[in-house]
Structure formats: structure tokens, C-alpha cells
TrEMBL record, chain A:
SUPFAM superfamilies: ISP domain (SSF50022). InterPro entries: QcrA_N (IPR045603), Rieske_2Fe-2S (IPR017941), Rieske_2Fe-2S_sf (IPR036922), Rieske_Fe-S_prot (IPR014349), Rieske_Fe-S_prot_C (IPR005805). It comes from Nocardioides ginsengisoli. PANTHER family: CYTOCHROME B-C1 COMPLEX SUBUNIT RIESKE, MITOCHONDRIAL. The keyword Disulfide bond applies. PROSITE patterns: RIESKE. The keyword Cytoplasm does not apply. This is Cytochrome bc1 complex Rieske iron-sulfur subunit. It is a multi-pass membrane protein.
TrEMBL record, chain B:
This is Cytochrome bc1 complex cytochrome c subunit. Its EC number is 7.1.1.8. Pfam families: Cytochrom_C, Cytochrome_CBB3. The chain crosses the membrane at residues 258-277. It comes from Nocardioides ginsengisoli. The cytochrome bc1 complex is composed of a cytochrome b (QcrB), the Rieske iron-sulfur protein (QcrA) and a diheme cytochrome c (QcrC) subunit. PANTHER family: CBB3-TYPE CYTOCHROME C OXIDASE SUBUNIT FIXP (PTHR33751), CYTOCHROME BC1 COMPLEX CYTOCHROME C SUBUNIT (PTHR33751:SF13). Gene3D superfamilies: Cytochrome c-like domain. The keyword Metal-binding applies. Its main location: membrane. Keywords: Cell membrane, Electron transport, Heme, Iron, Membrane, Metal-binding, Repeat, Respiratory chain, Translocase, Transmembrane, Transmembrane helix, Transport. The keyword Transmembrane helix applies.
Length: 367, 291
């Protein structure tokens, strides 16, 4: 009681800091767990742990039984709206794992050795003497190796280590053929004078009559050649399997019909106007986002703004695909379109710039 | 008359007398007139019905819609020149039926988007409003039931329809409405609504008219039989059981991630804290117990 008075002093202008260093109070007295001091309780805990492990084994067996007896399609709303198989498999395997976990924790908390461990806190910085010794050892090593005195050895070593980078370069090069000019072209350019590349509906592959589309319509499209390669003199194997996916990943297209007076035609790669790139207000843009290449068709009819769901890049399709929001660095490439003799929408030619994400060799032009 | 006689004469030169052509013409005129006489009263009846419906719709329109859409549906602009309520002159009856019977119109308050709510009009009132707005200009009419219903089709036909509808749905609808039709977010606070469990007629009308910011999928874009296929696919989705238990709204990794991180990991952390905080200690000493 008197100690407390000394250190905290009185409220009339005294010090709040203790007069001297506080003595190390040491560790509080260790209280043992009931299982440490009572053999009966220890035995009981042991049985509890074993029971938990046993329950886990039972659940595992139940899982196997459920797996082989219950069919996924049977009684699929029987347990509170969930399927019998789903519930049985999930519960039995979940409980089997949980009982092992609970058992191990119970074991550790009740039976494993119970002693307190103390670790003192030291400053992280080494003493000045230690630091000097370390620096000295390093300097000695450099001097003794003579790397400063023997430039022949030093330079030949640097040359040898530097050359070791070449195998990495050679092997990385052979990971695949270089893309060449593939990134600059799509299958839209494979149309001929007699058979211009038709624009067809994605999924059902029907050609589109320009006169059929109404203002406000949006169509997700693909080039006809992917479904109908012979018409364009393309080898069918060129549009199968992986090749098909590659072509789709570059050629996917969205078609939009808007009021013709809403369109602000920009410039093409040669600085000429894009005025004849649309057909009576029908415009065609690449479906591949110029940021990292997600396919996009989240369009707002009222604003002509096309949103990419991945990173919220937004493009204005009435204004040459200009980026109005988000991380995309380039406008969406536009495909110049026309109608063929039968009135179906076709591509005039290929895109005049690479579609999809940026890469460092490619050019950029002002719209 | 000379012209008529000459052609009639030529037609029957080898078979009938020169007067037969004229007789046929007279008979045809009589038949047409007779048919008109027989059916005209019925037509006049339905016309007056339609006129009465449009008149009733006009009354409802003036009371409930004209404030935003103008007294004759011409639309209202704000002082800044942006749209307060769009013109309804060419939206058609289908748009009105969709907006009013799903409760989106009339809007409860101005906002980014009109959400679905309980409809404030009865079926008859909605029909009257649709008839009135439909009479203002062009635009699609309310679709007939045969256009969206698969009633009377064999199971094989329905299956083929569902497959085709799935292709169309995945190519055109999933971008905004999610792979299972659960809806999704759009720019500036808008959203593409959930389209599961929506009336087939309303889905057909939504494709046809493009409500609010949605693009239209006119009959030239997705032909009527393909619209029916999309609806058949959506109805099939509604019936599909979720074998794996909770779908968490079928929103994909977002809802699943939230559940896993907040509830899954949260539960584990809470459990760990609870374990560490609870250990029974005894007041007995070890040697006391041994003694």
C-alpha cells in the first residue's frame, strides 16, 4: 500500500513517474490443467480424443457408403431443399476431416506437455565490434582472391557468367514460333471479290440482311468462313479445333444499328474519313477489349457505350470506339462493312489495325 | 370499259362466249359485296371496342404518364436538354405492356433505372394504356401466345428448341444477364435485371422493345422462332435442379468468394481465437495431487 503511494505521488503537483526502476515481477505462478493433476481426468481426455478419431473413421466409412449407394439425381430436394447425395457426401467428408482436427486440438490442449516458454527481446542491431569483424572478413576475402589485381580472371569470369544467359534465351525462343504478322490480320480479310466475307450471327451462323435490322439492334457476330470455309476457298482444317478458337478470339464482332446522324465518323489509318464504314447506321466493332482482350458486348442502347465487364473500360461506339472510361489505352477497332448483291452484310476488308490488347511493336494512329 | 372488254374477250376466246368474262366480273363484285355485308357489322363492332379502349387508355395516360412523357406521348425534355421522359410515339403496345405489367412504369421516383415492382394497373387498364400508346405511331404490338409458348409441341421439338435457344442465349444475352440469367451490374449504377422466373411474354416483349438501356433484338435480329427458342431455354433453366446445393444467386466467383472469405475464414479465425482463450486451469499443485 505504501509503495503505491510513493510511486504515484499525490494529486498536488507530484511526479507520476516512478522514482526508481520497477523490479522484474517475474512470471506469474503456473496453474496446472485438471488433466495434469488428476489421473482420472487425464484418462477421460485420452478416451475423448480416441472417440473423436473414431467418429472421423465412421464418417469416412459413411462417405464411401453414400458415394456408392446414393445417385446425384435421386431425391435432390429431400433434405431441406438439398439433394440426398450432396448432403450425405458433404456432411460425411466434412465431419470426417473436422473430427480429426477437433481431436488433435483436444489432444494438444488437454494432454500434451504444458509448460510456458519465455523469449527475451534483444536489439536487432549487431554490436559495432561484430560489424567491424564482418566487414574486415569481406575485405580480406576480396584482397586474397586478387579479383582487383587480376583483371584477366575477373573479365573471363564475367564473360563466362554472362554467356550463361544465352541458353535461357535460346530455350525461351523455342517455346513456340514467333507470332509473325498473325496479330495484324484476322480472317475477315479472307473474303474475295466474288465472295466478300459475310457477317453471320454467332451461335446459329445465319447471314444478316441489312434491311432486317432495326435501330437499337445489337448482334453478336462471327465471320461466315468459320462455318462455311469452302465458300471463301479456305481449307476446312484451317477453321477446326484450336485454329477455330484462335480465329474466333480475333474475329469476334459486334454489330449495332444506331441513328445514322448519331455517328461521328473518325479517320482510318491513312487519315481518310470513315464515312463509308457503316451501312445506314449499322456499325461493326471488334468484340475484343483493347485492354487485356476480354470479349465485350455489354452495350447501353441509349448512349452507345460498350462496357467491358473485366475492368470497366468503356468505349463510345458512335465515336470510332473512343475510350470514355477505364484502363483501355486504345479505341476499339472498327470493321468497315458493306452489303453484297443479295443484301447481306459483309466486311469491306480486314481491320486496319491489330485487334485486342496492345503490344509494343504496334503502331497507333489518331482517329 | 373498252380495255376491260378486250381483255375479257381474249381470256375466254377459245372456251366461252364473249359475254362470260363480264359475267365473272359481275359475280365477283356481287360476292365481295355480299361478304362485306355479312362481315361489316362485326368489324364495326371491334373497331368501336378498340376506339373505346384507346379512349380509356388516353384517360389513364393523361392521369398517370403525361407528366413525364407529355400529354400526347411526345416526350418531355429537361431545361438542360436531356430526356426527362422519352417520347412514346413509336415504342408500340408491346413496350407499354412490358413496362406497366412488370410495374416498372409508372416510376415511383426519378432514377438511373426503373426497378421491377408490383404493378399499379389492372390487366384491363394495362391493355387500354397499351392500345392508346400503340395507336400513337409505329412499334411492335403485344405478341400472341403462339409466339412464345411451347404448348402443343412434342418433347423432341422442345429439346431441339432448347439447344438452339441456349446457343443464342450464350452468344447474345449472357454478357449482361449472366450465364444463368441472374443479372449483373451496368455502368453508372444501372443493372441488367435477373431474368429467371420472368413471364415468357415479358421476356419476348423485352427482346422486341429493348426496355430502358437494353439493346433491341427485333424480329430481323433474332427471328420470332429463335426468340421462342431463347424463352424455351430460360424455362428449362428455371426447371433445372441445382444438384450442388446452394447456388448463392448463380453470380459466379463474387458471391462464392464473399461467402468463402467472410463466413468460411471468419468462422475458422473465430474458432481459433475461442480455442486459445479457453483452457480450464486447476488450483491444485502437481505434487499435492501426487501426494
Amino acid at each position: 500500500m505504501s509503495d503505491a503511494h510513493d510511486t504515484h505521488s499525490d494529486p498536488h503537483g507530484g511526479e507520476l513517474v516512478p522514482a526508481g526502476p520497477i523490479a522484474d515481477p517475474g512470471l506469474p505462478e503456473h496453474h496446472w490443467r485438471p488433466t495434469d493433476v488428476d489421473p482420472a481426468k487425464e484418462k477421460r481426455a485420452e478416451r475423448q480424443v480416441a472417440t473423436l478419431f473414431g467418429l472421423s473413421a465412421v464418417c469416412t466409412v459413411l462417405f464411401l457408403v453414400a458415394y456408392f449407394t446414393l445417385d446425384i439425381g435421386d431425391n435432390w430436394t429431400i433434405v431441406a431443399g438439398f439433394g440426398a447425395s450432396t448432403m450425405a457426401l458433404g456432411l460425411s467428408l466434412g465431419l470426417a476431416l473436422m473430427f480429426i482436427g477437433v481431436g488433435v486440438i483436444h489432444w494438444a490442449r488437454k494432454l500434451m506437455a504444458d509448460h510456458e516458454i519465455m523469449e527475451l527481446r534483444h536489439p536487432a542491431r549487431s554490436s559495432d565490434a561484430d560489424r567491424e569483424v564482418a566487414v574486415q572478413a569481406l575485405t580480406d576475402g576480396i584482397n586474397e582472391s586478387g579479383i582487383g589485381r587480376r583483371p584477366l580472371i575477373r573479365n573471363s569470369l564475367l564473360g563466362a557468367v554472362g554467356l550463361l544467359g544465352l541458353p535461357a534465351v535460346v530455350m525461351l525462343r523455342d517455346l513456340g514460333p514467333l507470332p509473325g504478322d498473325k496479330l495484324y490480320h484476322t480472317i475477315w480479310g479472307k473474303g474475295t471479290k466474288s465472295a466478300p466475307m459475310r457477317i453471320v450471327r454467332d451461335g446459329i451462323w445465319t447471314p444478316i440482311l441489312a434491311s432486317d435490322l432495326e435501330i437499337g439492334d445489337l448482334v453478336n457476330c462471327q465471320p461466315d468462313a468459320l462455318h462455311n470455309p469452302e465458300r471463301y476457298g479456305i481449307d476446312p482444317t484451317e477453321v477446326e479445333g484450336v485454329n477455330l478458337q484462335i480465329h474466333k478470339s480475333k474475329a469476334s464482332l459486334i454489330l449495332l444499328r444506331m441513328q445514322p446522324e448519331d455517328i461521328k465518323p473518325g479517320k482510318d489509318a491513312h487519315g481518310k474519313s470513315r464515312a463509308n464504314w457503316d451501312v445506314q447506321g449499322i456499325v461493326a466493332y471488334s468484340k475484343i477489349c483493347t485492354h487485356v482482350g476480354c470479349p465485350i458486348s455489354l452495350n447501353e442502347r441509349t448512349t452507345h457505350h460498350l462496357l467491358c465487364p473485366c475492368h470497366q473500360s468503356t468505349f463510345d461506339l458512335a465515336d470510332s470506339g473512343r475510350v470514355v472510361f477505364g484502363p483501355a489505352g486504345r479505341p476499339l477497332p472498327q470493321l468497315p462493312i458493306a452489303v453484297d448483291d443479295e443484301g447481306y452484310l459483309v466486311a469491306q476488308r480486314d481491320f486496319d489495325e491489330p485487334v485486342g490488347p496492345s503490344f509494343w511493336e504496334r503502331d497507333y494512329y489518331e482517329r | 370499259m373498252r380495255l376491260l372488254n378486250r381483255s375479257a374477250g381474249r381470256l375466254s376466246r377459245h372456251r366461252r362466249g364473249p359475254i362470260a368474262g363480264l359475267l365473272v366480273l359481275v359475280c365477283g363484285l356481287l360476292l365481295t359485296g355480299g361478304l362485306y355485308a355479312a362481315f361489316a357489322p362485326a368489324q364495326a363492332d371491334s373497331n368501336t371496342d378498340q376506339q373505346a379502349l384507346i379512349k380509356e387508355g388516353r384517360q389513364l395516360f393523361i392521369v398517370s404518364c403525361a407528366f413525364c412523357h407529355g400529354q400526347n406521348g411526345e416526350g418531355v425534355l429537361t431545361q438542360g436538354g436531356s430526356q426527362y421522359g422519352p417520347a412514346l410515339t413509336d415504342v408500340g403496345a408491346a413496350a407499354v405492356d412490358f413496362q406497366v405489367s412488370t410495374g416498372r412504369m409508372p416510376m415511383a421516383q426519378p432514377g438511373v433505372q426503373a426497378p421491377r415492382k408490383e404493378s399499379v394497373f389492372t390487366k384491363e387498364e394495362t391493355a387500354a394504356l397499351a392500345a392508346y400508346v400503340g395507336s400513337l405511331g409505329t412499334g411492335p404490338a403485344i405478341p400472341d401466345k403462339e409466339l412464345y409458348s411451347t404448348d402443343g409441341m412434342s418433347q423432341d421439338q422442345i429439346d431441339a428448341l432448347v439447344v438452339r435457344g441456349g446457343q443464342i442465349f450464350l452468344a447474345n444475352c449472357t454478357a449482361c444477364h449472366n450465364f444463368e440469367g441472374s443479372g449483373g451490374a451496368m455502368p453508372r449504377g444501372g443493372f441488367a435485371p435477373k431474368i429467371r422466373g420472368v413471364d415468357s411474354k415479358h421476356i419476348y416483349e423485352a427482346m422486341l422493345t429493348g426496355p430502358q438501356s437494353m439493346d433491341t433484338f427485333s424480329d430481323g435480329n433474332i427471328p420470332p422462332e429463335d426468340k421462342k427458342a431463347v424463352i424455351a431455354y430460360l424455362n428449362e433453366l428455371n426447371k433445372a435442379p441445382s444438384y450442388s446445393g446452394l447456388t448463392l444467386g448463380s453470380l459466379g466467383p463474387v458471391s462464392e468468394g464473399i461467402i468463402a472469405w467472410i463466413f468460411g475464414l471468419g468462422l475458422l479465425v473465430g474458432f481459433a481465437v475461442w480455442i486459445a482463450a479457453h483452457t480450464t486451469r486447476s488450483s491444485k499443485k502437481k505434487d499435492e495431487a501426487a501426494a
